[in-house]
Every structure is written in C-alpha cells, then in structure tokens.
From TrEMBL:
Entry's transmembrane regions: 20-49, 61-82, 109-135, 147-163, 169-188, 200-224, 316-335, 355-378, 390-408, 414-443, 464-488
Every DUF112 domain range: 20-438
Keyword Membrane attached: yes
Organism: Paracoccus haeundaensis
Native organism taxonomy: Bacteria, Pseudomonadati, Pseudomonadota, Alphaproteobacteria, Rhodobacterales
Keywords of this entry: Membrane, Transmembrane, Transmembrane helix
InterPro entries on file: DUF112_TM
PANTHER family in the cross-refs: TRICARBOXYLIC TRANSPORT PROTEIN
Name under which the protein is recorded: Tripartite tricarboxylate transporter permease
Protein origin, superkingdom: Bacteria
C-alpha cells in the first residue's frame, strides 16, 4: 500500500466520532493553554498523562497531538496582545505582532498568524505523511550499534537544543540518566539505587516525574514571583479580517516559513525557536519594505508563525519513526506512548499502522478545527488572559496532585511528586532545562540495553560502536548537534537583538 492508501486508511480511523471528539478536546484545550502566558503544551500534556491512563490509546495520543498544535496556535495571541511570549518560539511574533496591535492592527496580526498556522500545519502534515515511511525503511536496517548511536544523538540534541547553555543541558540529562538507573537491572536482576524502598524497585514513574517538573515546578516559580508587574492586554481594535494588501504580503511568508520550519523541526537539534528566528531573518532580507520591520511588519508575523507550526509537524517525524524527541512536548508525548505500552519507532508502523496513520490523518482534521476556533472566537481567548494567576496555578497544583493519586495511589508517589516538584523549581531558578531530565529517564534504559547488546556481540570491543557507516555517521551528527544549535541560535538571536537595539535608538 502506498502513502495515499495509508493516509486514506488513517482518515477512516480519524473520522470516527470518538476520535473526532478527542481531537476537538485537544485543540480547544491546546488553544486555551497557548493563550495563557507561562503555560505551554508540554505542561498540559504532562498534566493529562495520569488522567488518560485508562483511556483509549489512539484517542489519548490524538488529543495530545491536538494540544501540541493548539498550543502553537494560541501562543500567538499572548505574544501579539500581551507582548509576553509563552515559549521561546513566540518571541519573534511578539516583536512585530505587538507593534501591530499597538498601532490598532491587532486583528490582522491575529488573522495572519492563524491562517499562516493553518497553511503551515496542513502542508507540513502532508510532508510528514510522505517523509515518515522513508525514514522508517532506513530505521529498519538498524542494529544495536546504530540504535545506541541514535540514543547518543538524542541525548546530545536535547541537551544542546534546550536552554541557553549546553553545559546546563548536559547536567540536566545526567540527572535524568541517574534517575533511570533506579530499579531492577534488566540484565543481572540486581536492585539499583532503591534505598530499601520496595516501591522504587519498578523504577521512577515517568508520569510522576513529568507532572512534577513541568506542573508543580512551574507553579512554584510563579508563586515565588507573584509580586511581578502585571501585564497589560492590548485591546483588539477594528476588524479581525485581513485586507487584500495583507493577503498579498502574507502568502509568500506563509510558504517560506513552512519550508523553513518543517525540515528544522524534523532535524535533531531543531525546534521551533530556531525555525522562527531563521524565518524572521529570511523575511527581513526578502521584504520590499524592510524599514517597517521593528514597527509592525505583517511579514514578521506571518513567516515565523508558519515556521512555528510547521516545525511542530516536523518534530513528529523523528518522534514517530525513531522514537527521538526533539522538543519538550515531544518528550512528554513519548512518555504518553510508553504509558500505553507503545514504543515509537519503525516497528510501530508495522505493529500499529492504524494508530500511527490515524494520528497523522487526525492532524489534518485538527488544523481545520483550529482555524475555525481561532478566528471567530478570538474574543473568548482574549478573556482568558484576565484569569488571576494565583487561581490558575492553584488549580494546576490540585489537578497534578489528584491525577497522580488517581494513576498511582501511594504515599511514596506523592512524596516523589513533591521532591521532583521542588527539584523542578530549583532547576528553573538556576536556569537548567527541564526536558533533558525526562528524556534521560525515558531513553536511558533503552540506551543501556542497546549498548550492552552491542558490546556483547563484539565481546567488549568499544570500537564496534563506530564500526558501521550509520553508527559512525550518527555519532558525528551528535558531535555537530552539540555545536550547530548554539551557532544558529546565536546568529538568529543576534539579528533579532540588533533589530530591537536599532528600534530603541
């Protein structure tokens, strides 16, 4: 069966009424979460992990993907009207979008962001459907050496791509790898780092760690900064609809942003933040009116927003085909797969094709749902910005606690929720990224297993890890992945910061 056949089969699964309901819930919650400053899709998916434990796997994963897409959509509202990017990927949108809002053109800014996200999401999801089978065919040739090299690549990419310091990212990763050692050794059967606590023999629950780090830690850091200055929402004036001139200036940036964002999202060490910075730089170079940049150029909203959403679809390529998460939300979605006993990778396409293709097809439907939700209901999303933060984060804490109790009613589990929550607070306080800890816990046991298999086959020869072109190539890419994101981020941010400095002058 070709890609079109699989995609048609996936559409049959995705149009099931219950799957459609899960998709609608996901995009609605994701949009609401994206609008609220400081709450990202990773936090929301982490909160829902324990709640969806007993639900249908396909529906739950479709809902998680809908939250991911919806969070990307909703983040533009906060950036444009509040000048407060919820995530690093929305920084560029705030730079031009808020200037448009202050000039009374907040409606067209929101419209070009929503329509650009729709175009990018649609095109990028189709690209995902055609690229994924090719990557799967390549991955089916992997042995233990190649898989271990792939795990090394994953470790390096999440350590270097998250946060502003590769050193801090690596420290966070090693914390996750240390937590992955807790429990029974898969080879010898010996207990490791259990400290005499029987509940730790099964290892650290990924769900508990994710909820604690993302939800509890975030609530603590917000509570610690409760005396900060209140943000002021810029009202949407005039019509939300774009003029003919706005359409003319936006459609090319939408397409350019799509084809910049998708490959960067699909690359290890990619991510939406790098894609948006590069898209902004490309639009500034291609603009017929470069003097408007920094004063509310619509191209500076259209291109980066398209790149933002295209990178979200691109992120699913390594996640679904290789089990390789390149963003914080992808790491939590990987935990969601494992929660249902599923391991993303080439075998998932063979053992659960309906699930995979149904998930891909549901993203096409979710994109249509999102554009319908975003444009007519913009007034409703803006009202969400008025929710007091103490109420919001108190609710998050209650939800996190109840979800953990529901999934695993144990005093030890609640104690770990508190301990890891404090750890998440301290990591945020000192600038250490959270996602590498979760990735280390999830992929650590898999990397250890593949390393042991490779060394057993070669009778302890370490050079076997780079003895094939694929494994050596992946290790080389891992080395580049440690350096390239820092250079790309420095170049992209340098251009944006120089623009901001020139605006102030």
């Amino acid at each position: 069966m070709d890609t079109f056949g699989y995609l048609f089969q996936g559409l049959m699964v995705a149009t099931d009424p219950m799957i459609l309901l899960y998709a609608l819930i996901g995009v609605t919650v994701g949009t609401a979460v994206g609008v609220l400053p400081g709450i990202g899709p990773a936090l929301t998916v982490a909160l829902l992990l324990p709640v969806t434990y007993g639900l249908d796997p396909a529906g739950s994963l479709v809902m998680f993907a809908g939250i991911y897409y919806g969070g990307m959509y909703g983040g533009s509202t906060t950036s444009i009207l509040l000048n407060t990017p919820g995530e690093s990927a929305s920084i560029v949108t705030a730079l031009e979008g808020n200037k448009m809002a202050r000039a009374g053109r907040g409606g067209p800014a929101l419209a070009t962001a929503a329509i650009g996200s729709f175009v990018a999401g649609l095109v990028a999801t189709l690209l995902l459907a055609f690229v994924a089978p090719t990557v799967v065919k390549l991955a089916l040739t992997f042995g233990p050496r190649e898989y271990f090299a792939l795990m090394v690549l994953a470790f390096v990419t999440v350590s270097s791509a998250f946060g502003d310091s590769a050193r801090k990212g690596l420290i966070s990763l090693f914390i996750g790898l240390a937590l992955a050692l807790v429990g029974i050794d898969q080879l010898t059967g010996q207990a490791r780092l259990d400290f005499g606590v029987p509940q730790l023999l099964d290892g650290i629950e990924v769900t508990t760690l994710a909820v604690a780090l993302f939800a509890v830690g975030e609530a603590m850091i917000v509570a610690a900064n409760r005396h900060g200055v209140e943000d002021k929402v810029t009202a949407v004036k005039g019509s939300v609809w774009m003029t003919r001139e706005d359409w003319k200036r936006s459609w090319k940036p939408w397409l350019r942003g799509t084809f910049i964002g998708f490959p960067i999202g699909a690359m290890p060490a990619g991510g939406a933040d790098i894609a948006t910075f590069l898209s902004y730089a490309a639009e500034k170079r291609a603009a017929k009116r470069p003097e408007e940049f920094g004063h509310g150029a619509i191209e500076g909203v259209a291109g980066p927003e398209a790149a933002n959403n295209a990178s979200a679809a691109g992120t699913l390529v390594p996640l679904l085909t290789l089990g390789l998460p390149t963003t914080a939300t992808a790491a939590i979605m990987l935990a969601g797969f494992q929660q249902f006993g599923l391991q993303p990778g080439p075998l998932l396409f063979a053992t659960n094709p309906d699930l995979v293709w149904g998930l891909i097809a549901s993203l096409l439907i979710a994109n249509v749902m999102l554009v319908v939700l975003n444009l007519p209901l913009i007034g409703l999303w803006v009202r969400l910005l008025t929710i007091p933060r103490p109420w919001l984060y108190a609710g998050i804490l209650c939800f996190a606690t109840l979800g953990t109790i529901g999934a695993n009613p144990s005093p030890i589990e609640l104690s770990m929720l508190l301990i890891f929550g404090v750890m998440g607070y301290l990591m945020r306080l000192y600038g250490y990224p959270i996602a590498p800890v979760v990735v280390g816990l999830i992929l650590g046991p898999m990397a250890e297993q593949q390393l042991r298999r490779a060394l057993s086959i070669s009778q302890g020869d370490v050079m076997t890890l780079v003895s094939t072109p694929v494994s050596a190539g992946l290790i080389a890419v891992a080395a580049l992945a440690l350096i390239v994101p820092m250079i790309m981020r420095a170049r992209g941010k340098g251009q944006v910061l120089s623009q901001m400095a020139s605006d102030e002058d």
